[in-house]
Design brief:
- The complex is a heterodimer of chains A (332) and B (338).
- With 332 residues, chain A is mainly α.
- Chain A has a single domain (46-330), classed as MetI-like fold (Orthogonal Bundle).
- Chain A has helices at 8-13, 21-30, 33-50, 52-55, 104-140, 142-156, 160-177, 182-189, 193-203, 206-220, 223-230, 235-256, 259-271, 283-291, 298-326, and strands at 70-71, 88-89.
- A two-stranded parallel sheet of chain A has the order 1-2.
- In chain A, helix 5 (104-140) runs parallel beside helix 9.
- Chain B is an all-alpha fold and 338 residues long.
- Helix content of chain B is 68%, strand content 1%.
- Chain B has 13 helices and 2 strands; from the N terminus they run αββαααααααααααα.
- In chain B, strands 1-2 form a two-stranded antiparallel sheet.
- In chain B, a hairpin with a 2-residue loop joins strand 1 and strand 2 (41-42).
- In chain B, helix 6 (157-171) crosses helix 11 (267-284) and helix 8 (235-242) packs antiparallel against helix 9.
- In chain B, 37% of the residues are buried.
- Classes of the chains: A mainly alpha (332), B mainly alpha (338).
- The interface between A and B is large, with 45 and 50 residues.
Chain lengths: 332, 338
C-alpha cells in the first residue's frame, strides 16, 4: 500500500496500513501457485458435485443394458491386446460404462458428492466438537481439565478404525432390518451417509480437542484476556469473542490437513461395503466393483481412481500451502 | 522408567476391557444371528435353537459376556470356553471346525510379515529420501523428493494396489497377481523359513508391500526432511563443523541421529494406518491374512471372530503406542516420564 494513494488526513494518522494476521497469511497463500491451482480444482469439483444433476450427462443409476462395459475408442489402448474382439466399443459415453451399463463419467461426478460431502461434514463436526471441548477444558482448568483430558486420553487409546467399522456394521444391520423412524428415512435419502457422519463424529474430535486446549492454554494468561476479564466480560464472552478468533486459524489449518484422510476413510469404508448404499456412487464402491474386471476393463478402475487421487492431491497441496502461509517459519 | 511402563500397562486393562465390552454389546445388538442361514437355505427354528444352545447364545447376555471373559469353569457351568483372560478367543461360529485361535494362528503370521516388510520399505526409502532432500535444500533433488512424497501421500492403497497389478502383473507379467509366498510352519511363530525366502516369496511380496508401504515412506521422508533442516541450524552442529569434523560425520553422527527422534513419534499412527491398509491390500491381492478375515467376518456376523480380532488389533495398537513412547524417551534424554 503506497502512501501516495492515501488522502492527506489518512496519511497523517497511519504510515502503513495495518494488516491482520489473516490478511498477511492470505496474501502469502495467493502467491503460492500450486496451492491456488489446487484451490481452483477443489472449487470446480465442488460446484460440479453440487450441480451434478446439470453437469453429469446421465443419471448415476441410469442403465443402458446394451452398453454394459462399453469402451470408447480412444481408451482402447488401455485394454489388453486383442480387446477389439470382446470389447463393446461405443463412443456414446466419454469414459465408457460400467458392468451394469451406467455412464462412468456421470457416476464419477456424482461420486464427488459423497467424497467431498463426507470430507466437509466430517471435518466440520470434528472441528466443532473438538474445539468446544478443548477450549472449555483448557479455559476452566483445574480438576475439570484433569477429568476431561483423562477421558480424551482414554478414548485416544482406542483403535479408531476398528470402532468405526463396528459402528458402521451395527448401523447397516439395523438399517437392513428396516424401520420407519425419522433417522432411517433421512439416512436413506442421504444414500447411507448420515450414519457415516455419526460414526465419525463420535470419535474423531479427540485430536482437535487436544490442539484447541493447547492453544487456549497459551493465550489464557495473556494481557488481552486479563483486560477483558478486568472490564467484567463473562467467561462465555471471553471464550467466544477473545480466544476463539485467535486460535481458529491454526485449528482450521490442522483440520484441513485431515481432509485427505477423511476422503480415504470414506473410500475405504465403501470399498469394504460399509459405506454408502447402492446405487449411490462413491469412488470407493466404483473401484471395488471394477477391480474384479481389472484385466479386461482397466478403464473402469482408472477413472474413479484418478478422480480420487487428484482430489486428495489437491487437498494436500492446499493444506500445505495454508499451513505455510499461516506460519512461514515452518517452511524454512 | 520401569514404574512408567508398569503404570501404562495397568492402564491398558480398562481400555481393553471397554473395547471387549463395546464390541460384544454391539455385535449382540445387531439383528439377525450367525445361524440364520446355512449356505443359501434358512434353517428350521428348532435347529437354530439347538445350535445356539450349544454356543450358549441362549444364556442371558451378562452371563455370555462373563463366560467369554473368564471362562465357563470359573462360572461353575459346563462348557469349553476358557475365557479371554486365559488366551482363549472362543470358537468361530461360521467356520465351526475352527476356533478363533486357529484363525489367528494361520492368518496373523502372514499379516505380520506383510506389515513388517512394509515398515522396512518405508524406513529404507523414507529416511534416505528425506535426508537427501534436506541436505540439498531447494535443489532439484529436494523438489523431486518433496513432490514425490506428496504424490504418494495422495494415492490411497486402494488405488495403488489395482494400478500395480494392472501394470506389473497383467501388463508386464513380472509378478503373480495374488497370493502370498510363505507357508507354515513359521520360525518363532510368524517368520517365514529361510528355505522359503526365494524368488517365489519375493515376487509375491513386492506389490502388496509397495501398496502398503509407500504412503508411510512418504510421511517419513517429509518428517525427516523437516526435522533435519531444523537440526542442522543448531549450534552444536556448527561446533562439530568448527572443530574440523568431516561433513559426513557431522551429518550421520550428529545431525541425523537427533533429527530422527521426532520421526519415531509418527510410528504409532503409522502402525494404525498399516493395520487398516492390510484390510484393503489383503483383499485386493487375495492374501489370507488377518485383515481380510476381519472384513469377511464383519459381513458374516461371526461374533466371536469379530470380537477376538478387534481385541487383538486393540492390543497390538496399544502396545505399539507404548513402544513408541518408550523409544522416544530412550532416544531423547531431555524427556523423562515418571
Amino acid at each position: 500500500m503506497a502512501v501516495a494513494e492515501l488522502t492527506p488526513q489518512e496519511g497523517e494518522t497511519l504510515v502503513r496500513k495495518e494488516r491482520s494476521l489473516l490478511e498477511e497469511s492470505f496474501i502469502r497463500l495467493v502467491k503460492n501457485k500450486v496451492a491456488i491451482i489446487s484451490a481452483i480444482f477443489i472449487i470446480v469439483l465442488t460446484l460440479a458435485a453440487i450441480f451434478a444433476n446439470y453437469v453429469a450427462p446421465y443419471g448415476y443409476a441410469e442403465q443402458d443394458l446394451l452398453a454394459n462395459n462399453a469402451v470408447p475408442e480412444w481408451m482402447l489402448f488401455l485394454l489388453p491386446p486383442g480387446a477389439e474382439n470382446y470389447a463393446n466399443i461405443s463412443d456414446v459415453y466419454a469414459f465408457g460404462a460400467d458392468h451394469l451399463g451406467r455412464d462412468l463419467l456421470s457416476r464419477t461426478i456424482y461420486g464427488a458428492r459423497v467424497s467431498l460431502g463426507f470430507a466437509f461434514v466430517a471435518s466440520l463436526v470434528s472441528l466443532l466438537i473438538g474445539t468446544l471441548y478443548g477450549m472449555v477444558s483448557g479455559y476452566v482448568g483445574g480438576r475439570v481439565d484433569d477429568i476431561m483430558m483423562r477421558i480424551v486420553d482414554f478414548l485416544y487409546a482406542f483403535p479408531f478404525l476398528v470402532v468405526v467399522i463396528l459402528l458402521q456394521t451395527y448401523f447397516k444391520a439395523i438399517e437392513r432390518r428396516g424401520g420407519a423412524s425419522f433417522f432411517f428415512d433421512l439416512n436413506d435419502k442421504m444414500g447411507g451417509m448420515l450414519f457415516l457422519f455419526v460414526a465419525i463424529g463420535l470419535i474423531d474430535w479427540i485430536g482437535m480437542a487436544r490442539i484447541a486446549r493447547g492453544q487456549v492454554l497459551s493465550y489464557k494468561n495473556t494481557e488481552f484476556v486479563e483486560a477483558a476479564r478486568a472490564v467484567g466480560a463473562s467467561d462465555t464472552r471471553i471464550i467466544m469473542r477473545h480466544l476463539l478468533p485467535n486460535i481458529l486459524g491454526p485449528l482450521i489449518v490442522a483440520e484441513s490437513l485431515n481432509i485427505p484422510s477423511y476422503i480415504f476413510l470414506e473410500a475405504f469404508l465403501s470399498f469394504i461395503g460399509l459405506g454408502v448404499n447402492a446405487p449411490t456412487p462413491s469412488w470407493g464402491i466404483m473401484i471395488s466393483e471394477a477391480v474384479e474386471g481389472l484385466r479386461s476393463y482397466p478403464n473402469q478402475v482408472l477413472v474413479p481412481a484418478i478422480a480420487l487421487s487428484l482430489t486428495t492431491l489437491a487437498f494436500n497441496f492446499l493444506g500445505d500451502g495454508m499451513r505455510d502461509a499461516l506460519d512461514p517459519r515452518l517452511k524454512e | 522408567m520401569t514404574r512408567y511402563i508398569i503404570r501404562r500397562v495397568l492402564g491398558f486393562i480398562p481400555v481393553l476391557f471397554t473395547i471387549t465390552l463395546f464390541t460384544f454389546a454391539l455385535m449382540r445388538a445387531i439383528p439377525g444371528g450367525p445361524f440364520d442361514f446355512a449356505g443359501d437355505r434358512s434353517l428350521p427354528p428348532q435347529i437354530v435353537a439347538n445350535i445356539e444352545a450349544k454356543y450358549h447364545l441362549d444364556w442371558p447376555l451378562w452371563k455370555q459376556f462373563l463366560s467369554y471373559l473368564i471362562g465357563d469353569d470359573l462360572l461353575g457351568e459346563e462348557g469349553i470356553s476358557k475365557g479371554v483372560i486365559r488366551g482363549d478367543l472362543g470358537p468361530s461360529l461360521r467356520y465351526r471346525s475352527q476356533s478363533v485361535n486357529d484363525i489367528v494362528a494361520t492368518t496373523f503370521p502372514i499379516s505380520a510379515q506383510l506389515g513388517f516388510l512394509s515398515v522396512l520399505l518405508a524406513v529404507l526409502i523414507g529416511i534416505p529420501a528425506g535426508t537427501l532432500a534436506a541436505l540439498n535444500q531447494n535443489s532439484w533433488i529436494d523438489y523431486t523428493s518433496t513432490f514425490g512424497a506428496v504424490i504418494f501421500l495422495s494415492i490411497p492403497n486402494l488405488v495403488l494396489a489395482p494400478i500395480l497389478i494392472w501394470i506389473f502383473a497383467l501388463g508386464l507379467g513380472w509378478f503373480p497377481v495374488a497370493g502370498w509366498g510363505s507357508k507354515p510352519p513359521y520360525l518363532l511363530g510368524f517368520l517365514p523359513q529361510l528355505s522359503q525366502l526365494n524368488w517365489n516369496y519375493i515376487s509375491h511380496a513386492i506389490m502388496p508391500v509397495f501398496a502398503l508401504g509407500t504412503a508411510s515412506a512418504a510421511s517419513i521422508a517429509r518428517l525427516t526432511r523437516a526435522s533435519l533442516l531444523q537440526v542442522i541450524r543448531e549450534d552444536y552442529i556448527r561446533t562439530a563443523r568448527a572443530k574440523g569434523l568431516r561433513e559426513r560425520a557431522v551429518i550421520v553422527i550428529h545431525a541425523l541421529k537427533n533429527s530422527l527422534i521426532p520421526v519415531v513419534t509418527i510410528l504409532g499412527p503409522l502402525f494404525a494406518a498399516l493395520v487398516s491398509g492390510t484390510f484393503v491390500v489383503e483383499q485386493i491381492f487375495g492374501i489370507n491374512g488377518m485383515g481380510k478375515h476381519f472384513v469377511q467376518s464383519v459381513g458374516n456376523r461371526d461374533y466371536q471372530v469379530i470380537t477376538g480380532l478387534t481385541l487383538l488389533f486393540g492390543v497390538l495398537l496399544v502396545i505399539a503406542n507404548l513402544l513408541v513412547d518408550v523409544t522416544y524417551a530412550w532416544l531423547d534424554p531431555r524427556i523423562r516420564y515418571d
